[in-house]
Amino acid sequence: MTYQEKCPICGTVNKDLNLDETNGWFICEKCGSEVNNLTHCKTVKIPFLKTDDDIKNYFGIT
Ligand SMILES: [Zn+2]
Prior knowledge:
With 62 residues, the protein is of the alpha+beta class.
């Protein structure tokens, strides 16, 4: 199965990507950036947020 993903860097739609083989990584045909779009829609890693204060700091809420 191939996928169609939009490059988050330049916005170019990359077609016929074999994301299953690469764990979601692809190289944009336009700008050459290595991007992983699976991280956007599957698991979002939020670093070291243990308390409400951590969360506020992370998102810049004061
Ligand atoms: Zn790009």
